[in-house]
UniProtKB/TrEMBL annotation, chains A, C:
<keyword id="KW-0560">Oxidoreductase</keyword>
<protein>
    <submittedName>
        <fullName>Amine dehydrogenase</fullName>
    </submittedName>
</protein>
<keyword id="KW-0574">Periplasm</keyword>
<dbReference type="InterPro" id="IPR011044">
    <property type="entry name" value="Quino_amine_DH_bsu"/>
</dbReference>
<keyword id="KW-0732">Signal</keyword>
<keyword id="KW-0813">Transport</keyword>
<comment type="similarity">
    <text>Belongs to the aromatic amine dehydrogenase heavy chain family.</text>
</comment>
<feature type="signal peptide">
    <location>
        <begin position="1"/>
        <end position="25"/>
    </location>
</feature>
<dbReference type="InterPro" id="IPR015943">
    <property type="entry name" value="WD40/YVTN_repeat-like_dom_sf"/>
</dbReference>
Automatic annotation (TrEMBL), chains B, D:
<keyword id="KW-0732">Signal</keyword>
<dbReference type="InterPro" id="IPR006311">
    <property type="entry name" value="TAT_signal"/>
</dbReference>
<comment type="function">
    <text>Methylamine dehydrogenase carries out the oxidation of methylamine. Electrons are passed from methylamine dehydrogenase to amicyanin.</text>
</comment>
<keyword id="KW-0574">Periplasm</keyword>
<keyword id="KW-1015">Disulfide bond</keyword>
<dbReference type="Pfam" id="PF02975">
    <property type="entry name" value="Me-amine-dh_L"/>
</dbReference>
<keyword id="KW-0813">Transport</keyword>
<keyword id="KW-0824">TTQ</keyword>
<feature type="domain" description="Methylamine/Aralkylamine dehydrogenase light chain C-terminal">
    <location>
        <begin position="60"/>
        <end position="170"/>
    </location>
</feature>
Length: 404, 173, 404, 173
């Protein structure tokens, strides 16, 4: 301060009111004497990102469990290992959805008029990737499910036309937002069934409390009509998780806590259970999938990456200590890769030359790995408190559609 | 699509005994009939007490520790560490009227008890004694036994989650 | 889960909808066989605190710097070392004020309609100590200074009638709230001067940028009139901190970064500088006061406790490694007490048999000490992220008034 | 009560050069006249850039480290760690138009520079690279040199504080 005060008094500024604009930002001519040129006066700039999200950028969701009001998504460049920016969420932050062109992030948010109390407002906000500024906003019924993050509670139709928001009050319903017109379509009752797993531009499956699946369609105006229902496909003793894996346009793998896999196809509008197999083989009954995001499917290669740990019933949120890799078409495991740090979330980029990502809830660190052997390429640290789910952006040719 | 179970029958009997919550129960009808059930706690009857109610005389263990027997299926901040106890909400919060159930074995008597995991609500997250045990917890599409859900949804004060109780409701068998 | 499902099915409940009310809360009769009685079914209760705040309870303010939206105050019992509850704050949480009877906490809060963006609303909210529920609220101009916490930016008049809120937009002004009628009185310009240091039921002093003090009064309706101003009392080279210490009804100690003390009395309505002395003696020039709350004055004993550290200019936020104790009337140091953990905040209870408290920003821990030697009586841990200031409640006979 | 100083004279000269910000400067009049000053940055002229502007060629050190020379008087999260740089706000934030000044010595050339500590605003706190150095910082009642204040107050996006810049504005002497 001494130097500041003296310097500024010498310059006749007192406590100076200095313009740092381009008006006076031109670099000064260096005085005669010193050998090193004087630093130029700088303009302030604001960073812009890209128009579309590159395949190796990643959205890292932080639910901030100890300060649930301030959930957020971080954007990182996994090739460079750099932090690029942040998109604010809200109370009980679930995640974002990418517009199919990768140019916009749709962010569901829940806010209270007085922080953690007062009138509740739920909104969908569009953030352009380019400037990460809050753009259009659609107010939706303040009923969005508040839970540990599940991306299937906030899906976007494949063409980006509609966003679906699962409500739990505890009545169960689905809010539909027209993402093109940016307005609310309406709220539709879905008694007894939850979440939306997209099986086409205008169709999806829901999971119901008795272990059955419910088919549903959207019409061109976004109105939901419930369709066929299956018999209960899963036991109450070993339910399918609420984190199924999309392996084709209309095909999903439902995987139970114990690792039993059932492929279900909704192409016909009636969910049809197909192949049934298990993640574990003989002598591996002690191993289970676990975590907040235990599965990542890479459509170009048809490979499924699963976080596995040793543990019994009730350990479905335990972090994985190995990544098991499966060829879904052949229903076979092709690799078993121990990892040096346990992980509760796994994701893989959607391009042909992918990066594999893992994160452990509470670590604030994303580990970037080689898919072939899970070896560590780099780590991105300081990513907040409570990483829940990781989200790789879509690539030019939608992976899910291509795989069918 | 008929997903009715014995819970609805039980509800009908129980609701008849509680006049004060009929309006609320009525709203729950579709949910209960369709998906199973959840614990209903009549918030209008919740007592305010000068102190947190301690554990019972025939219990053992430290209710501020995640290892405490009642917490076998909890996922959240323990109200015991937040100014409350296993059955008392901290001051300035409201217990959730509905929630989900777990069953835990009390090591002191060897019996299994049904534990009600009501949330205390309306205040920013407590942040103390985070405890996740998940024994018996189901996916969110089976909400009556799901601990990933914020159960504050039935409160007057809104869904802001503060901490979780673990209340003895009776013998499991 | 296995046991739950089996047990509940056996009891004929399916997924049971169980009442836990008093209706069915009566303890069951123990069955014949077991020796240990069965546990009783429990009611849910909500804890109530006391009608008035005991002298050894403490309010611990957490600004939550990494999640500034979710500031809060914790209430702890320093005798028992227990955590009692939490009062939610808002963005850039400053602290609370106690009503003179200790029965209510007045909490200034700043909220945005969309978490960290959107319309800003500033309010004062009354929380009764007994139930810690948000009670009446007065909306004030959304101009409250956002800064590291300073209790003199939100003072209450000694009789509890008016609350003053210092605004910085960067225009400087003071909002006055009638705490009895619970309504806004108005906003009054205070150009060039900041904060309010109460010097009576209806008078206060402000600190001005040129190092002078500005006297001001409130009339019975709460209207502020600016009064006399002093000459600059402090050098720009060594300014008085914005954390002066009240040592009497109308008397304050202003203490500079380097530890020079000036007592100023505003009893006449014109601030009059009195005794000038220093915290440091010969050979102690390397020591300075520092922290976010470096001073605590105990009125019954007339003793001032100061967090001191070794450091030069620019270290005024550095944590103290010793507590120096001064007899203010005699302007003499009576003790120099090293502490095992550095501290950025110090406070002392206002009763005749006081407890001394220290906390280090970032530690989440309050250390309860014996005032005589600063020895550790107990620690209260897990108090959030960023403890800024500690606040001991008033006692029956107001300490500040009694000391005059 | 006349607290006029040379800053006001300087302001008058400077303002004359900037037509775009006159309305804003007008509002600042009372503040500047009365209390001294703060740095005014015409936000209407802030450029968007495809990348964060790096440090200049004749500088040394790591702008992601609190030890970096420009940070001698900063108090907050370093924008360099938040998707920006020492002179670039992270995407989705707005630089504060006014702020306070410090003077830091550049070890690479031995010169003292005036550094403008503008905040980037409108988004919840970044939370990365917290750095508090405070050299030359004054109490809040001397705001033109106070780093305890949230300087986002002049922005369109509101006072929510995200991170702090450290911009070279010129030689100090």
């Amino acid at each position: 301060m001494r130097s500041l005060r003296n310097g500024m008094l010498a310059a006749g500024l007192g406590a100076a009111f200095v313009m740092t604009s381009s008006v006076c930002a031109a670099p000064r001519k260096a005085p005669a004497a010193p050998k090193v040129p004087e630093l130029a006066a700088e303009d302030v700039t604001v960073v812009e990102l890209k128009d579309r999200m590159p395949a190796h950028w990643l959205v890292v969701n932080d639910v901030v469990f100890t300060h649930l009001l301030d959930g957020r998504a971080y954007i990182v460049d996994a090739d460079k290992g750099t932090y690029l920016g942040m998109v604010p969420g809200g109370h009980s932050h679930a995640g974002v959805q990418f517009s199919p062109d990768g140019a916009n992030l749709l962010m569901p948010g829940t806010f209270f008029a007085r922080g953690s109390r007062g009138e509740r407002t739920d909104v969908i906000t569009w953030f352009a990737l380019k400037d990460l500024m809050p753009g259009p906003e659609v107010v939706i019924p303040p009923k969005r499910m508040q839970a540990l993050p599940l991306l299937s509670s906030i899906p976007l139709t494949d063409d980006g036309r509609f966003m679906l928001i699962f409500n739990f009050t505890p009545e169960q319903s689905m809010t539909v937002v027209d993402a093109q017109a940016k307005k609310l379509v309406g709220e539709f009752e879905t008694p007894g069934c939850a979440l939306a797993h997209m099986t086409g531009a205008r169709s999806f499956m829901m999971q119901c409390a008795d272990g059955s699946l419910q088919s549903a369609t959207l019409d061109e105006s976004g109105v939901i009509t419930l369709g066929a229902t299956t018999d209960p496909l899963f036991d109450r003793d070993d339910p399918a998780t609420d984190k199924p894996v999309r392996v084709g346009n209309s095909r999903w793998l439902f995987i139970t806590f114990a690792g039993a896999v059932t492929e279900v196809d909704n192409a016909s509008g009636t969910p049809v259970a197909g192949a049934r197999w298990r993640l574990t083989g003989p002598g591996e009954q002690g191993w289970r999938p676990g975590g907040l995001q235990p599965y990542a499917f890479h459509a170009p290669s048809g490979l499924l990456y699963v976080l596995m740990h040793e543990g019994g019933p009730g350990t479905h949120k335990h972090p994985g200590t190995e990544i098991w890799v499966f060829d879904v078409a052949r229903q076979q495991r092709i690799a078993r890769l121990p990892i040096e740090t346990p992980a509760t979330a796994i994701e893989i980029s959607k391009d042909a030359d992918p990066l594999l990502y893992t994160a452990l809830f509470g670590s604030g660190t994303v580990v970037v790995r080689k898919p072939a052997d899970a070896s560590v390429l780099r780590k991105i640290e300081g990513l907040g408190n409570d990483i829940s789910v990781l989200q790789a952006p879509p690539v030019a040719a939608p992976a899910a559609g291509a795989a069918k | 699509m008929r997903r009715f179970d014995r819970a609805a029958e039980y509800l009908a009997r129980t609701a008849a005994r509680s006049t004060s919550r009929r309006g609320f129960i009525g709203r729950l009808g579709a949910f209960v009939t369709a998906t199973g059930a959840a614990t209903l706690l009549p918030v209008s009857r919740v007592r305010a007490e000068k102190a947190a109610v301690p554990i019972q005389v025939h219990e053992e263990g430290d209710p501020n520790s995640c290892d405490y027997w009642r917490y076998c299926a909890v996922d959240g901040f323990l109200c015991s560490c937040c100014g409350g106890s296993a059955s008392s909400c901290p001051p300035g919060t409201e217990p959730s009227p509905i929630t989900w159930l777990g069953t835990c074995r009390n090591p002191a008597d060897g019996r299994n008890y049904v534990i009600s995991y009501n949330d205390c609500c309306g205040k920013a997250a407590c942040g103390r004694c985070n405890c996740s045990r998940d024994e018996g917890a189901t996916p969110v599409y089976q909400p009556s036994t799901a601990n990933d859900l914020d159960w504050c949804l039935g409160t007057q004060v809104g869904v802001a989650y503060h901490c979780s109780l673990s209340v003895v409701t009776g013998l499991a068998d």
